[in-house]
Write a structure and sequence with these properties.
Layout (H helix, E strand, L loop, with lengths): L13 E3 L11 H6 L5 H8 L6 E4 L5 H8 L4 E5 L2 H4 L6 E4 L11 E6 L9 H13 L1 E10 L5 H4 L3 E8 L2 E11 L5 E10 L2 E10 L3 H10 L2 E6 L6 E6 L16 E3 L2
Parallel strand pairs: 2-3, 2-5, 3-4, 5-6
Antiparallel strand pairs: 1-10, 4-13, 6-12, 7-8, 8-9, 9-10, 11-12
Helix pairs in contact: 2-3
Bound molecules: S-adenosylmethionine (SAM).
The site of S-adenosylmethionine (SAM) has 19 residues, from helix 3.
Length: about 260
């Protein structure tokens, strides 16, 4: 098992509100209420039929359940037991992504939800190394990042959506600052009915050149940009190979079969 580090505590995310909150500040109740959105279709269209998927940071299974319905066996990883309790029909793995070493590999590794944009390069590479450890030689890693331009344009907003059975969802972003080059800090406020949660975070820009460097450092390379806004990327093991230990025995994190 690798030991990973996280950066300056001032840059770490945190959150509050009703119900369980994950170490990175996400509300379990809020994520459990959200609809799957477009992510499952983007993933499904980028991989072979019935491809096995390791989903990193799976949360309450918002995307997991839709991928299962599309025919993909999914192993769902999260560091929050309260999130994983919400997942049905998939294998679940309670672990930090950085430390994950299951000793087996998957057709596809899903690394979405802007986890790439953590505010520290060493941390980011330790997350990407976990992707590389678990992807088959002919498989792929699907990555979702913030648009690089967003780091220049991010500003407070308030959006209302009316697409949940529980009622209107309100997203507000406030307290936007830029604490350093390529960094944005902000607080998101989410409301459904009379429940409100906040999550404060700092994200780091990962432009195309930075992405290529970080992927190359762990034995991956960009294969395709999957969306016009270039926020979804498919990466594959690079020809140069990798000696990061994908075939080492697993470090026995807590797993639950469906
Ligand atoms: C924003 S939520 C998104 C959940 C899910 N991907 C979705 O789209 O609904 C991020 C999830 O990633 C998990 N997470 C964040 N960093 C993690 C890490 N380093 N290791 C394991 N889980 C992590 C959190 O606990 C949380 O459940």
């Amino acid at each position: 098992m690798t030991t990973s580090r996280r950066p300056d505590p001032a840059l770490l995310p945190h959150g509050d509100g009703p119900g369980a909150i994950t170490p990175d500040g996400c509300s379990v109740e809020f994520y459990a209420a959200l609809a799957p959105g477009q992510e499952p279709r983007i993933v499904h269209d980028a991989i072979p039929e019935r491809a096995t998927i390791l989903e990193l940071g799976a949360g309450a299974g918002r995307v997991t359940h839709a991928l299962l319905a599309l025919g993909h066996p999914v192993a769902a990883v999260d560091e929050s037991p309260e999130m994983l309790e919400r997942i049905r029909e998939a294998e679940t793995v309670l672990a930090r992504i950085e430390d994950l070493d299951l000793g087996r590999r998957f057709d596809a590794v899903l690394f979405a939800s802007y986890l790439l944009n953590v505010p520290d390069q060493e941390w980011r590479r330790s997350l990407l190394a976990a992707c590389r450890r678990h992807v088959s030689d002919n498989g792929c890693v699907l990555i979702q990042r913030h648009e690089p331009e967003w780091f220049d344009t991010a500003a407070p907003f308030e959006h209302h959506y009316d697409d949940l059975p529980q009622g209107e969802v309100v997203y507000r972003m406030r307290d936007v600052t830029r604490p350093g080059p390529g960094l944005v800090s902000a607080t998101m406020e989410y409301s459904i009915g009379d429940r409100t949660w906040t999550q404060s975070f700092t994200s780091q820009r990962v432009d195309d050149a930075q992405l290529a460097d970080d992927l190359g450092a762990v034995g991956l390379a960009v294969d395709a940009y999957l969306t016009d806004d270039r926020t979804w990327i498919r990466a594959r093991p690079s020809a140069a190979g990798w000696s990061g230990g994908a075939d080492r025995p697993g470090a026995s994190p807590s797993t639950r079969q469906p």
